[in-house]
């Protein structure tokens, strides 16, 4: 049972435009969400996180939006740069339940075209 | 570099052999996690330690897998009698809980190929 889903395996965006990556979850106990970026042959790199008490968190070009009622989160990258080309994973955990492990989605491969 | 390090980066072994991987976390981090990632999937949780105590194990962690963190610093993950299905990237992450918030930082991974 896939508790965290990234339904778009790939996305192509022109340099300078907005990239929007989506993630859906099924477990209502999840209360902490993160986005990681992964380049080939490297481990995932932390990008940005959001707690369930918020609906938006911004860090430079990266903004994460959380819609708890829809069990949906999204990552916006503005403006997109060629160096952003990577696989992006969303992850969730149920911290208030005492569970610290992350449940990851299957990833979305972003390609930013110059 | 003060990030999470993992050794070896690559391991090729024959079916039935034992392998051991090492993870050195960020020095002040008290939690250490092991994940496994196969092609086309996200990382899957295997087990985690708080200091030297192993607090949770996934059902993915069969009896052939054992993890230790003897002094609450580095950790090892051993796979006995490897099978071809064990071929994957094994990722280690460490974290520090601050004000109830925790972010896991990942190492580069060990890629295992079982022939």
Distance separating the two termini of chain B: 33 Å
Can you give the helix content of chain A as a percent range?
under 10%
Give the assembly state of these chains. Answer: heterodimer
Please report the number of helical segments of chain A: 0
Radius of gyration of chain B: 14 Å
Q: Gap between N and C termini of chain A, in Å?
A: 38 Å
How many extended strands of chain B? 11
Low-confidence stretches of chain A: none
**Cα-based radius of gyration of chain A, to the nearest Å:** 14 Å
Summed up, the helix count of chain B is 0
Order of helices and strands of chain A: EEEEEEEEEEE
Coarse structural class of chain A: mainly beta
Low-confidence stretches of chain B: none
- Characterize the largest beta sheet of chain A: strand count, sense, and whether it forms a barrel: 6 strands, mixed
Summary keywords:
heterodimer, A: about 110 residues, mainly beta, six-stranded mixed beta sheet, five-stranded antiparallel beta sheet, about 0% helix, about 55% strand, globular, B: about 120 residues, seven-stranded mixed beta sheet, four-stranded antiparallel beta sheet
